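The aim of this short unit is practical: by the end, you should be able to scan a pair of folded records and say something sensible about each. We start with the first protein, listed as its amino acid sequence and then its structure tokens.
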Amino acid sequence: MSYLQTQTLSHAQKVRRLYKNGLRLMQSMYGTDRVEMRYWSVLLRAKFDEHKNEIDFRKAKELLMAGEQKLWENQHPQPYLYAHSPGGICYGREVKLPDWILDTWTPQEKAQYPEYFARREIRKREYIERWENKYGKTSNDAH
């Protein structure tokens, strides 16, 4: 969930995101033609550089809002998405199994990886000791 916005963005961060989203739009539009994509990317950069030293905050805010509006109007119907990013075809496909699943293995299965399970037992013991030092021993008689 690292892609969720949890804090207020500064003006500079908004401008950088607008520029990056503009480049992503170029990639969606001209992704197969590298020369065409590079041409439009250079023109986009020139537009941003043209106003990079704007000192009037109202004007800068208007430019940012106009850029966001233009980006919204020119959305691609099928934007390019990286496979493992949210919305990509592989996002959330790989199931992350919890560690306790390895405790259910039979001794014959564990015998196939003796070094790994020996090291794992040491790490589990260390983890339990750290937990007990920090929070105290757990009582199984609490019920």
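Turning to the second protein, read its sequence before its tokens, just as you did above.
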Amino acid sequence: MTREVDAVPCLLMRGGTSKGAYFLAEDLPADPAARDELLLRVMGGPDERQIDGLGGAHPLTSKVAVVSRSADPWSDVDYLFLQVAVGAREVSGRQNCGNLLAGIGPFAVERGLVPAGEEETSVRIRMVNTGHRATATFPTPGGRVRYTGDAEISGVPGTAAPVVIEFPPSANPLLPTGNVRDEIDGVAVTCVDNGMPTVLIEAAALKVTGYESPAELEADRALADRLRTIRLVAGRLMGLGDVSHATVPKPTLLAPPREGGAVTTRTFLPVRCHPAIGVLGAAGVAAGLRIEGSVGAELAVLDAAGDRVRVEHPSGFMDIESSLGTAPDGLPRAGRTAVVRTARKIFDGTVFPAPAGTAPPPPPTRGGRP
């Protein structure tokens, strides 16, 4: 009989524009079902307020990172992302999270998984959910992680030390459907995967401007119905199967830029509208805009002289370095992708889960690997 876990070492961090609980894999149950049941109690689910746990009653603040040393010769650590649902008994591993990714390198140093350099440290990360890889580089003067600095990102107050995240080109196709454009429910879409399955849609095609606030878009039930239909069909076309209980692919509405960037975006999670944009979602937008004939290519304002793409979102912008190459089949493929993010350690200590039995166990994790 498995002993109930009543205390777990935990580091709560802000990563990018999200916040999550970071754990060593060895501190959690090895059985995925037991692990997910524990994480629901840690985060306060399935209560919509998450009043009895660490969660903040929003998908962006109900996230978990599980980290371990990697057996992959390329990588230093493995990072499993788990989305703990708000108001539901579900823990999902069917996607990456590029925001919590910003905290993985610092966490690995904090927990002794990777030795710190005297000035800066680079940590090679394998994202278990999809097999994608990334390298995070951040300051470690004197062999300790420095969180303070002058890097500023939209959606986060103040400044912090920069975390430079670079993604090597993925072996997965940038266009999972094999098409630059598909038509779903009478709407032209471009399905891209540059680390996160994303569906690019021109906002005007769904009778919105793309400049509405997240709250206004969430209140539009007709829009929600259209997006749900498009997302379910796109999931099948992208080889993801039935995505009715998954958070990917993420629909992203595109509109011409307003603040000097390349494009304006509104991303859905998949129902709530993101108050900013995720790192990997922005990477997909940036790559998608560079594909000739894609949805958004004609309305985007791109710098022909460089790789930087400024993606506008509801709370500001995100700069992505993005380039394309050509796959053997002649289709475009992702080249270099890099972004500057920040992370901050909020607390390091012990979390005490709510007692077992306060919430029914969740269904099995969807996607990901233990």
